[in-house]
Design goal:
Helix content is 37%, strand content 14%. It is α/β, with parallel strands linked by helices. The chain has a single domain, classed as TIM Barrel (Alpha-Beta Barrel). Belongs to the shaker potassium channel beta subunit family.
Amino acid sequence: MEFRHLGRSGLVVSEISYGNWITHGSQVEEDAAVACVHAALDEGITTFDTADVYAQGRAEEVLGRALRGQRRDGLEIFSKLYWPVGPGRNDRGLSRKHVIRAVEESLRRLGTDYLDLYQAHRFDHATPLEETLRAFDDLVRQGKVLYVGVSEWRADEIERALKIADEMGLDRIVSNQPQYNMLWRVIESEVVPLCEREGVGQIVWSPIAQGVLTGKYKPGQPPPAGSRATDEKSGAHFVRRYLDDQDLLTRVQELAPLAAEAGLSPAQLAVAWVLQNPNVSSAIIGASRPEQVRDNVKAAGVRLDAGLMSRIDELLSEFVQRDPSLTASPKERP
């Protein structure tokens, strides 16, 4: 495993982190989830990402039990808040009330007394940004949170947060957690340049595009049994936008020989590709089986040559999403 700083902060994280969105508490049984976490630990992953909304808290509980007995100071545990976690009007968003209550619940479920990173899962248009940042800063000063970050925020939202933090003398955000892969590159034109300038690192999710970049979804064929596309509980709707494009699926098949040239599987190539971006601090992988973890971690430390990167660009260019406006938070709290 290789390690990088989280943005310009002093916190060091594993290049590949383990995330349990969809899988823990919903898609796979707990023994399988625990086996995946232990495989991640065995492979040198020290960074684990979750959120209170994943399986309505069950994902945090499973992760907490899976990490029990590990040396806490040797781990970096991240969680997030924003989406509804209860029926109440204040069980969502980034109000001070919800931030303070949500972190206590996450700490309880995870079985830890602090989070290494606490992230605003989306931008909350209904709460003054000053209120959220002050609440985050209070958590840092209380030692319940060591660093704060955001997820799926636009460049102007990140810039506003940094400006307010500087003006008010609050802790700055050190990270953003966006979707990023060979096909979804909406952060490159605005978010990445800003974050490089301001010392904010990217912790990217979906580096293999929900499994599409592995090549397992063949054009003209039904999805493989047991794959994410066949399981509504595992986010099948996220994959369908790709599966409807037969030309894309055909083109993705051509990644396999490029991966082979580099001595990688298509999945390893996809993870290694996002790690070539110097603003990426870590790439989040998920798994329903330990062997998936063991396969994906082989992308750590891989350096792809410029020629291969260019060939990937040429192969997929007509299918790539680049519009920064595609990063959007709900205008009203869900």
